[in-house]
Amino acid sequence: MRRAVCPGSFDPVTNGHLDIVQRAASLFDEVVVAVGVNKSKNRLFEAEERIAMLEEACAEWSNVRVDGFTGLLTTYCVENGVHAIVKGLRAVSDFDYELQMAQMNSSLTDVETVFVPTSPAWSFLASSLVKEVATFGGDVSGLVPPFVLERLTARLAERRATGG
Ligand code: PNS
């Protein structure tokens, strides 16, 4: 059984993330979408909300499950029998940082990192941009699943109402 992990913050999950997860699911026996829950960055959605959205988004793929992790990704991989970390590369600008993380991770344990080129349709897509565009009223309906759009719209309205 070859198990891979697709790690990330997923704040929130986009169609670009899902493209990578779906393709990882065709390459490995099992894929765990691992949501980093302990990063210091301010998040729009709590870890439980990010996980719930991913579970809904990945429900149709029988060999994909969603989990949260704290601490080092490599520790999660060792403790969960994960053989490979799958990362999407949108452009050469992603490469430097991703290569550095891949090399650090492989120095910590013998897990491999597999880079998957993002589909051209999603090469400009990032959760941070989706949030920014949606905050200023732009149309992001083609970039995230409909239920994510609903939650995003509601969360941004709550933030506006509370001045956050
Ligand atoms: O969606 P992101 O923010 O690019 O996800 C980054 C993530 C969560 C995959 C990365 O920050 C990570 O692996 N964090 C866990 C802590 C860790 O292992 N750090 C060492 C990386 S070499």
Molecular structure report:
The protein has about 160 residues and is of the alpha/beta class. The protein has one domain (about 5-125): Rossmann fold. The protein is built from 6 helices and 5 strands. It has helices at about 15-25, 45-60, 75-80, 90-110, 125-135, 145-160; strands at about 5-10, 30-35, 65-70, 85-90, 110-115. α2 links the parallel β2 (about 30-35) and β3. The longest helix has 17 residues, at about 90-110. The protein is globular, with a radius of gyration of 16 Å.
Q: Structural class of the helix and strand makeup? A: alpha/beta
Largest sheet composition: 5 strands, parallel
Residues in helix, %: 40-55%
The N- to C-terminal Cα distance equals 46 Å
User: In percent terms, what proportion of residues is strand?
Assistant: 15-25%
Please count the helical segments.
Answer: 6
CATH topology: Rossmann fold
Which regions contain 5 or more consecutive residues with pLDDT less than 50? none
Q: How many domain modules?
A: 1
